[in-house]
Every structure is written in structure tokens, then in C-alpha cells.
Specification:
By secondary structure, the chain is an alpha+beta fold. About 20% of the residues lie in helices and about 40% in strands. It contains ten helices and 35 strands. The strands form seven sheets. Strands 1, 2, 3, 4, 5, 6, 7, 8, 10, 12 and 13 form an eleven-stranded mixed β-sheet that branches. Strands 24-25-23-22-29-33-32-31 form an eight-stranded mixed β-sheet. The chain starts with a helix and ends with a strand. It holds the Pfam family DUF3857. InterPro entries: DUF3857.
């Protein structure tokens, strides 16, 4: 090898090893030991779109006897590299603690620092206690907000703290995956020999477990020091990609790479309360209902007596009570499992959290003779309830279950747009757990299913004039969740603004004679009807005329464009679209080639799609039928679902070729 070749090889070696060293996987983190190479890093090769990179996320959990009994302690140390401007918000750190029913958490020993490279030297910006801002979010939750100073693109930030918690029954999950890439996530769990914990690995991204170890620890019990065996388990994941949400999933938390920790058994005189949903609900009942499920609503006496005098029919009474609470109360946007204030105060203030509003509904329904119980659950955004893991922390939403003529009707009065018996989309999260004084019913799970579809039907008549302008009439019928969305849209704007937004969707569109029905009454049919004219919708190409009859149908983008999918498709409700268009061609025009009918059916009655054009003299009739009936499609069904949507969406780009007959 000649000298020049050796030189090139050495240069290449140093470039490669220098880049590799900048992203070396740390075995551990030492606070303040920041490498110049990491500060020089400008991009993360495995994901060049990343705006920041977690160099290390290290946690060490141990157990000890505190002043109030057994506690667990989590030492956490995080180091982050800021790569782009969009990553600067990583310097805004929020540490949450919870406290309820005598149990609680605290955060101490907070350290933080910011490192920048100035004239080739590492400059450290120290953390000050004044940078911590304490915020009481709810009765249960307190946030400690930390804003690290002088953070810029290229900075490295790090922070550490100690979490002490009495929630030894269900310690916090170790979440390894974030919305930015993670070079190393390391978690160590040191459990006393008296306790056995079940650690559940994530389904979609497994965190490798390393070889376990055994050690000893001195514990003070009844003022005496005892040596206890400690079982040490370790997990370490490397080069974890950023979590990228896919269209139509529930909460990202359901899919993140994480370790869920639960107490399985104990020889220390402790009885795990997390193994029983009835006990979890009894604990909530003691805090919310003073040990019973009865809810006093004497302050609503006049309104409820008027409803009872009006009708003896239970369904009619239920609708009237639901309408009373729904129309009077305004949801403040907060979830939870406890009241924000006494119910009388919430009722008089006409606002409250989800618990306040739906407890008022439950109490009022019981008062008019309709047996109603609280249904505790979660939301699609927050995550699914795991039935085999009875934890209070999973229950952050409350609904009502009314029993009428042998039927159970789930109600939620927090939305002003949902009719009786229809739940807001956020509440459609598979299942909830029932609270009751009846031991046979308390803790029973109830399926939460949508009772209506997202249903739109469009009838349209169009006439192509000799000047190639188009005029016609459009009638749209909305049902179910489509009607809810339409009412919120049309009532949330001035009518002129609403029509202007429709006209702006199509260049040259002019709307006249607009009429609507059912916009202010959610129990009426929701229909809008208008005439329209539009110019320049037909394009002349050579001796052909190109016309797309779908120009007045505002379809959203196809959500399934990726080749593969990591997570299941989970729809909140089924979808139904039916379009019937009639197009009258001008005299002397004809269709070059009439498109063939298209049809596709998904397996297991999952959905269907049909597209057909019928020609009768100069009249074209378009029939389009699209249904998606199943709510969940697994990843192995994604390819056929993707093809199904591609066929359906392709009609948006399927124009007709017209020709002028000589």
C-alpha cells in the first residue's frame, strides 16, 4: 500500500471513529462528565429528522422502610442533546407527583445543568433552586416545573432527581420510548426478598432484560436493623427509535416501549389492593361518596319534581334529566376520579369537571326513579384499561349507566352536542368498570360500544351547460357522529362565514338558496340543501373535455399511505358514506369511455366499497357506497385495508373524458 493510500485510509478511520464516538452508547452517566464530541454532534445519523436526542435515560429503583412504612425510591438521571430549534422545549421539564387516600409521593435532590461549547471549551450553566416552580394541578397531582437556562441548538442538558413514593403496590412504569430517539434506556429494580413484583414488557417493542443479581440491604424494622436479601433485575435498551404515532390509534401510551410494574405477592404482612377492582372502587367511594353510592341532589328538587310530574315513562324522564344537566352544565375540560368541588357549588356555578357533571346526572336520574350507577373508565387519549391490572390510576373518566326496562344505557352529559345515548368520541375506549353498593355488581366490567355511525348521505343533481359551466342542487344528510360534527361546525360560525368556507373549498363555486334543518335540535334530522354554480370545473385538453364529478365532495386524505404498519388500526366508530349523483350532459357531448364498476369487500363483514356509473341517453348516474363496519384491524390485515382505502380514494382522481360529437 502506498503512502497516499495509507493516508486516505487513516483519514477515513478517524472520520468514522470520530462520528461513532460522538454517538457512543454510555454504560452509565456521571453528572457533569460531558464529552466535547457529544457537544460537537450536529445530527443523529439513525434519524436525521430528530430535533433532539436522549443520550441516556437511567433509572434505579429500590425499596426501603420510611417513616410511614414501605416506600420505593427512584433515582433518575437524564442527558439530552439539542439538535434543532424544535428541540429546545426539552429544557422545559415537568415532574409530577400524586397524593391520595394517605399515600403520596415527593421529589427531592433535583440537579440540573446546561452545557455549551464556547471557543472549543465546555461551559456549564448551573441549576438554581429558584428555577423550580411548583404548580398544584388537581387535588391529587402536583407538578414541579423546571426551565433550564441558556439552552440553544447544540446544547446538552442533564438533570437528575429522587422520587420517593408510598405507591409500592403499583410503582410507575418505566417508559423507555419517547417522542425523540433514545441512545440508551437503562432501568435497575432492586426488590426486597419479601416482595415479588410482576414486570410486564411492552408488546410492540421489547426491552431486553440482562442477567439478574442478588445482594443484601440493611433495613430498619421496629427500630432494629435487619439484613435482607435484595433481588436485582436490570433492563437495557439501545438505539430506541422515536415513537411516531400512526393514524387511527388510541393513546400512544398503549404502544410505547415500557415496563409495567405490579406487586404480585408479599410476605411482609401487606395485602396487595391492586388485585381487586371492587377494592379499588371502594377506595374511590370512600373519598367521593362517603362510603356509599348515593348522591344527594336536594338542590335540584324543583327541576326534578317538574320532570316527574310531566311524565311517568322512564325513558322520557331520563331524556329530560339528561337534557337538563347537559344544557345547564359546561365541562371545564378536566378529567379525574374525584369531584372538583361540592356538587351544589358546581350546579350553581353551572360548570365542573367530568366527575361533577356526571355525578349530578347520576344523582338526578336516581332521584326520578331510574337506577343509575357510576361507570369508571378512561379515554382514548389517556389509554385503555387493563382488566387484569386493577389500579386506581387507570380510572380517570366517569360516566353514568342507567337501567331502563332491562337495558343498560351509558350516558355522558359533558358534551353539549351528543344526543341521549350517544357518547363523546373521547369516551369510546372499549370498556369501563361499574361502581355499585351491590357486591355482585361492583367491579363488573361493561363494554363501551358506539351506538351510532359516522354517516353521510349526499344526493346531487348537476347540469353541464353549453358554456361548460356547471349548475345544480346538493342535499346532504348527516347522521350519528357526522351530525354531531356538522352541528358543531355550522353552529360554531356565522352562516355567511360557513358558506364562505364551503365556497373557498372549490374555485369558482357560488352557493345560493341555502337551507338547513336540525342544526339547533340534535333530535331532528340533520340536513342541508343548496343550489350551486361553478365555473372552470371542466378542462379542455386537445379535443377532449376532462370532468371530475367528485369536485363537490370534500374527502379527507387517505390515512393509510405507509407500506407497513406497526400498530393496529382502531376506529372509534364505523363509517358509512352513500353518494348518488346525476349529471346531465349538454347536447352534442358524450363520454369517451364509461369507467367499469368497482367493488371490494373486506373479510369478516369488515366493510364494502361499490362504485358504478349508469348512462341513460345524456344522463349519467353515479352510485358510490362506502362502509367500514369493523372498528379494529390488526397489523396483518393492514395490506388489505390499505388496498381497500386506495380503491375508494382513487375515485377522487377518476375524471370522465367527454368528447363533443361532430
Amino acid at each position: 500500500m502506498n503512502t497516499k493510500s495509507r493516508l486516505l485510509l487513516m483519514l477515513l478511520f478517524f472520520v468514522i471513529s470520530g462520528h461513532s464516538y460522538a454517538q457512543t452508547l454510555p454504560k452509565k452517566l456521571n453528572f457533569g462528565k460531558i464529552s466535547t464530541e457529544n457537544l460537537k454532534m450536529t445530527t443523529y445519523e439513525a434519524d436525521t429528522s430528530a430535533n433532539a436526542l436522549i443520550i441516556g435515560d437511567f433509572g434505579d429503583m429500590s425499596f426501603d422502610i420510611g417513616g410511614n412504612g414501605l416506600v420505593y425510591k427512584l433515582k433518575k438521571h437524564v442527558r439530552i442533546k439539542i439538535l434543532k430549534k424544535e428541540g429546545l422545549d426539552q429544557a422545559n421539564i415537568v415532574l409530577s407527583t400524586y397524593e391520595s387516600s394517605g399515600d403520596g409521593e415527593s421529589i427531592s435532590s433535583i440537579k440540573g445543568a446546561v452545557y455549551n461549547l464556547v471557543n472549543g471549551k465546555v461551559v456549564k450553566e448551573k441549576f438554581k433552586p429558584s428555577m423550580v416552580h411548583v404548580e398544584k394541578v388537581t387535588e391529587e397531582r402536583t407538578n414541579k416545573k423546571i426551565h433550564l437556562p441558556n439552552v440553544k441548538v447544540g446544547s446538552i442538558i442533564e438533570y437528575s432527581y429522587l422520587l420517593t413514593s408510598s405507591y409500592v403496590y403499583s410503582p410507575d412504569s418505566w417508559v423507555a420510548q419517547k417522542d425523540i430517539p433514545v441512545l440508551v434506556s437503562s432501568f435497575v429494580m432492586r426488590t426486597l426478598n419479601y416482595f415479588e413484583y410482576k414486570v410486564i414488557n411492552s408488546r410492540y417493542y421489547q426491552i431486553p432484560e440482562l442477567k439478574s443479581e442478588v445482594s443484601t440491604q440493611q433495613i430498619r424494622v421496629n427500630s432494629e436493623s435487619q439484613s435482607m436479601t435484595v433481588n436485582i433485575r436490570k433492563w437495557r435498551a439501545e438505539n430506541i427509535p422515536a415513537f411516531k404515532p400512526e393514524p387511527l390509534i388510541t393513546s400512544p401510551y398503549d404502544y410505547l416501549a415500557k415496563l409495567k410494574i405490579e406487586l404480585k405477592s408479599s410476605d411482609f404482612g401487606m395485602k396487595p389492593h391492586t388485585t381487586s377492582w371492587p377494592v379499588v372502587l371502594d377506595d374511590i367511594r370512600r373519598s367521593v361518596y362517603n362510603g356509599t353510592s348515593s348522591i344527594s341532589v336536594g338542590f335540584m328538587k324543583d327541576e326534578l319534581e317538574a320532570i316527574m310530574a310531566k311524565t311517568e315513562d322512564k325513558t322520557e324522564r331520563a331524556v329530560l334529566v339528561y337534557t337538563l344537566i347537559q344544557s345547564r352544565m359546561t365541562w371545564d375540560g378536566d378529567y379525574g376520579r374525584y369531584k372538583s368541588s361540592p356538587l351544589r357549588k358546581s350546579y350553581m356555578d353551572k360548570k365542573g369537571n367530568v366527575v361533577d357533571i356526571n355525578l349530578l346526572l347520576i344523582g338526578a336520574l336516581n332521584k326520578v326513579g331510574i337506577t343509575t350507577s357510576p361507570l369508571y373508565g378512561s379515554t382514548r387519549k389517556y389509554g385503555k384499561i387493563v382488566r387484569g391490572s386493577a389500579e386506581k390510576s387507570q380510572l380517570i373518566y366517569v360516566m353514568a349507566v342507567a337501567s331502563i326496562d332491562g337495558n343498560k344505557i351509558i350516558l355522558d352529559a359533558t358534551s353539549k352536542s351528543t344526543p341521549f345515548g350517544v357518547l363523546p368520541e373521547r369516551a369510546l375506549n372499549y370498556q369501563g368498570v361499574l361502581m355499585s353498593n351491590n357486591d355482585h355488581i361492583n367491579g363488573q366490567f361493561i363494554a363501551i360500544n358506539p351506538t351510532v355511525k359516522d354517516d353521510i348521505s349526499i344526493r346531487m343533481k348537476m347540469k353541464i351547460n353549453p358554456d361548460l359551466g356547471v349548475e345544480g342542487n346538493k342535499i346532504v344528510s348527516y347522521k350519528g357522529y357526522a351530525a354531531i360534527d356538522w352541528r358543531e361546525d355550522v353552529n360554531g360560525n356565522d352562516e355567511e362565514e360557513y358558506l364562505t368556507s364551503l365556497e373557498e373549498d372549490v374555485i369558482g363555486l357560488s352557493i345560493s338558496d341555502y337551507e338547513k334543518q336540525g342544526a339547533s335540535n340534535m333530535y331532528e334530522k340533520a340536513i342541508e340543501n343548496y343550489n350551486f354554480e361553478v365555473e372552470n370545473v371542466i378542462e379542455k385538453v386537445g379535443d377532449k373535455f376532462i370532468f371530475n364529478p367528485m369536485f363537490l365532495i370534500n374527502l379527507s386524505e387517505n390515512p393509510f399511505t405507509q407500506e407497513k404498519r406497526l400498530y393496529p388500526v382502531e376506529l372509534p366508530y364505523s363509517i358509512d358514506r352513500k353518494y348518488t349523483f346525476q349529471v346531465e350532459l349538454p347536447e352534442g357531448f358524450d363520454v369517451v369511455d364509461l369507467p367499469r364498476p368497482q367493488q371490494m369487500v373486506l373479510p369478516n363483514k369488515g366493510g364494502k366499497f361499490r362504485y358504478q356509473i349508469v348512462k341513460n341517453n345524456n344522463l349519467l348516474t353515479f352510485l358510490i357506497d362506502f362502509e367500514l363496519n369493523r372498528l379494529v384491524f390488526n397489523t396483518d390485515e393492514y395490506t388489505i385495508l390499505k388496498t381497500f382505502f386506495e380503491k375508494a380514494y382513487s375515485i377522487q382522481k377518476m375524471p370522465l373524458e367527454l368528447t363533443q360529437i361532430q
